[in-house]
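Incident log, structure service

09:12 report received: a user says their structure output differs between two submissions of the same chain.
09:20 pulled the input from the user's history:
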Amino acid sequence: MLDLVYDTPAPKVFSGAKHDWEVVVGMEIHAQITSNSKLFSGASARFGAEPNASVAFGDAAMPGILPVLNEYCIEQAVRTGLGLNARINLYSSFDRKNYFYPDLPSGYQISQLYHPLVGEGEVLVELGEGLARHVRIERIHVEQDAGKSIHDMDPHMSFVDLNRTGVALMEIVSKPDMRSPEEAAAYVGKLRLIMRYLGTCDGNMQHGSLRADVNVSVCRPGDYEKFRESGDFSHLGTRCEIKNMNSLRFIQHAVDYEARRQIALLESGETFGQETRLYDPDKGETRSMRSKEDAQDYRYFPDPDLLPLEIEQAWVDEIRAALPELPDAKKARFMADLGLSDYDAAVLTAEVESAAYFESVAEGRDGKAAANWVINELFGRLNKDDRRITESPVSPAQLGAIIDLIASGDISGKIAKDLFEIVYTDGGDPAEIVESRGMKQVTDLGALEAAVDKVIAENPEQVEKARANPKLAGWFVGQVMKATQGKANPKAVNDLVAEKLGAQG
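09:34 re-ran on a clean worker, output below:
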């Protein structure tokens, strides 16, 4: 396996009116666990149901209903922790986080403050060829989601949809290790990718399956290093939390805006406290939502309805043994075993479905040729049509058959592109299309020689130029390919042209 080595990127420097500044970013990612039912009830966790159609008695906080833990949700969280190289705590417990909001019927959220299921881990966030940031994971705890308040259906009233209430979430808390807006967005993208490979979260940010609370602060150059040495957060400045971000692009914009806002305040001599802010994508700015709460504001205490959770190491080991190949390992394998470049391997592993498609095409074939066709031809055409790989009209078997026809010499590269277009538009078996439409490459040396002789005989002036400058021999090759409608074997034509022109010289 190829051992990839990365350099650590320099932090982004913001130039203020008086000083240079650096940004520091930490995150709390709320990832909805992929499961059929909710964390403590049997109600459906499926997105898109009619409002309040997926609500059990416990979700609605009806008196006397006790929570029953969904074991599969715990398994999914353990799987995620293992995928992030994190420590799995065999003992964990649930706590009540108390606050009032209309879409939280019970008046508290069941979460894990004191004893989370998953401990410290790490994520490698690639930021370009040869550059990557190691972002430390502080913890992952399991909790239930709240419902959704809807404010835009009526000018005078708000509505509450409890379908999401009780859906299982993983809150993935990072250390403040990200040093630029680009790193912040790339980190969320990498987490999303890993969980999609694991099958533990679908990562659909538009549906709210993945949301990020982004903590931003600024400090002077050198202060972050003091923090890493001492663990003293005062070196990092006052942080503000940007709540419920659901777009990688908006995360990047929000971090950039918030860093510049804080720098402007500090350089004008103003002070500000911790607060929770919202990002307005229409205005491209953050605005204050509320002062930032601390843990004591929520009056946490152990949930009396749930026993501590104790799991066995043997169960964790079984989950570990069944983990799929994750994107970093798959990328390294593509580079080592198939000879792909860092860029091509990164593109092909950027989505679970893309990697699976490519592997099917590449099986038993030249990896570089398969990568070129998948990335350049297929992805290019899908992007043009705004289609995902799962919507590709060309199956892996069909694309593989086109590559096989090139390798066998039955068709040229030019004919292959025409064939791809036919298959993409009309479907069909590539080999049968080549046969029925007379697209097969001309390899008969006698026929090719006749075509070359004809072009040479008709262009004596060009022959003289080519004899003086052999690089012009390509013109004859082009004419023969044109005359044969691209069916001539290019290598055979090249050899014949070189032989003919050389003999005449």
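09:41 both user submissions now match this output. Likely a transient worker issue. Closing.
09:42 reviewer note: The radius of gyration is 30 Å. The first strand starts at residue 13 and ends at 15.
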